[in-house]
Amino acid sequence: MPNTTKVRWGILGVARIACERIIPAIQTGRTGEVAAIASRSLEKAQEAASRFFIPRAYGSYDELLADPQLDALYIPLPNHLHVSWSVRALEAGKHVLCEKPIALNAREASQLIEARDRSGRLMMEAVMVRSHPRWLAARELVRNGRIGELRAIIGSFSYFNESPENVRHKPNMGGGCLLDIGFYPITMSRFIFEAEPLRVMGLLQYDPRFGVDRLVSALLEFPGGHASFICSTQLTPHQSFDILGTQARIGIKLPWSMPHDRASRLLIEASSQPGPDRLDEVWFPACNQWGEQCDLFGEAIKNGGQTPVPIEDAVANMRIIDAIARSSNSERWEVP
Fold first, then answer.
1. Edge to edge, what strands does the sheet with 225-232 contain?
2. How many other CB atoms sit within 10 Å of the CB of residue 116?
3. What is the distance between the alpha carbons of residues 247 and 11, in angstroms, rounded to a whole number?
4. Residue 161 neighbours by CB under 8 Å, 6+ apart
5. How large is the average pLDDT for residues 116-140?
6. Which of 12, 32, 110, 210 is the most buried (most CB within 10 A)?
7. Is the pLDDT of residue 336 over 60?
8. Cβ atoms < 10 Å from Cβ of 16
């Protein structure tokens, strides 16, 4: 497509993240426009189309896939539908941005590499945190030796939800804490270490009512150090991510869902300097990480380039998720 043409997006579903994050992000971004939206309910699709001034609304996903005036689709469906609808969208000639986690397991996720290669279209997992300038700067600080040798990462992510109707509490739909939010500290530990873990240890606690994991603790051994995290869908809301080196620590406040309308910062705490001078703050202008993600994907579509995060990375992340779950069952280290 010509470089000056905007990417025409279709939205496959009216999920909350689509309506609250992605549609506004595309509409205020640099590279795209939302041209159509679909739901299994035509009424819901029409309501969303009216709310966001989207030209076309469809009462089925198949109609959206058949729309010849769309270049790319965003898929925010429940986890168990990610692979099947991504494959169908690719085969329909559409580029695909699919919500995380890309699949229920690595074996299933690998189908997306084959479908991408067959179709000649681009496919990417929606990993919005990897687009935020703050995260890119944190990795550069580590690369440049600002914290000495990277040895450890400690992360957390929790919120409280006990709704029986919530999709995260349905095992047959890919529910559970590990797939939902354990995803984040895993992918960003790999991002910062710039390596894959050699082995992992995991401990999952299950909710007896829903049959899904509600509390996860994990340890990842990398060639250069360790990453550990805890996440839960039934704890007080909290987010943290600390990158620890031999000379300093980088702290990231609200690492996963930084509001897009305010500035953010990295806190660098040096161990070699006494007093208040040991603390340094690096500030970043307000950034819509969801919009930046869509714009980068749109630029790849327009320019015939590569996706910012290849689908192979998503498959690698799923291998680690699989291994953590296996470790909880085997009560031993597992190799991804």
1. 199-206, 213-222, 225-232, 150-160, 234-245, 248-253, 264-270, 279-284
2. 22
3. 46
4. 168, 169, 233, 234
5. 97
6. 12
7. yes
8. 8
Identify the pLDDT of residue 271. Answer: 81
Which superfamily, per CATH, for 7-129? NAD(P)-binding Rossmann-like Domain (3.40.50.720)
H runs (alpha helix) in the chain: 16-17, 23-27, 42-52, 61-66, 82-91, 106-119, 133-143, 177, 183-193, 289-303, 311-330
- Specify the amino acid at residue 237: P
**How many residues does this entry show for the chain?**
336
Provide CB contacts within 8 A for 165, sequence distance 6+. Answer: none
Would you say the pTM of this structure is higher than 0.90?
A: yes
pLDDT in tens, 278-316: 789 999 999 999 999 999 999 999 999 899 999 999 999
Q: Where are the domains of the chain?
A: 7-129, 130-290+318-330
- Helices and strands, number each (H, E), in the chain: 11, 14
Q: Give the active site residues.
A: 100
Indicate the fold that domain 130-290+318-330 takes in CATH: Dihydrodipicolinate Reductase; domain 2 (3.30.360)
